[in-house]
Amino acid sequence: MTDGKVTTCKKEFEVIDPQNKSFTFNLFDGDVSQQYKMLKVHLQVIEKDDGGAVAKWTYEYEKVNDDIPPPYGYLDFSTRITKDVDAHLIKA
User: Fold this and answer.
1) Residues 6+ apart with CB under 8 A from 20
2) What pLDDT was estimated at residue 91?
3) How many CB atoms lie within 10 A of CB 27?
4) pTM of this prediction?
5) What are the residues whose beta carbons fall under 8 Å from the beta carbon of 62, sequence distance 6 or more?
6) Residue 25 in contact with residue 43, Cβ under 8 Å?
7) CA nearest to 4, candidates 76, 67, 62, 60
8) Quick one: what percent of the chain has pLDDT higher than 90?
9) Exposure of 19 in the CB half-sphere (CA atoms within 13 A)
10) What are the angstrom distances between the C-alpha of 4 and each of 31, 49, 73?
11) Over 80: is that where the pLDDT of 18 sits?
12) Which three-class secondary structure state does DSSP give residue 32?
């Protein structure tokens, strides 16, 4: 769900790198392709000295035209997922 509505798309993993605790995937087709020619998502989990970790999300995109906003809704979705996973792991 992005920007308060259900968004449809397909995803294809480009890179899965367990050693660096990261992966990259492309979102395409469906609602995504109406706004972006290309939308690539990269997640890396970076361990901290105190035993915790930080999730670093990076988005690479090309808009269909200049009137399309940056993919802030997708970034917000990633932030919600990260917070939900964090809350789940703290309870475990």
Assistant:
1) 44
2) 81
3) 22
4) 0.84
5) 36, 37, 38
6) no
7) 76
8) 82
9) 0
10) 14, 37, 9
11) yes
12) helix
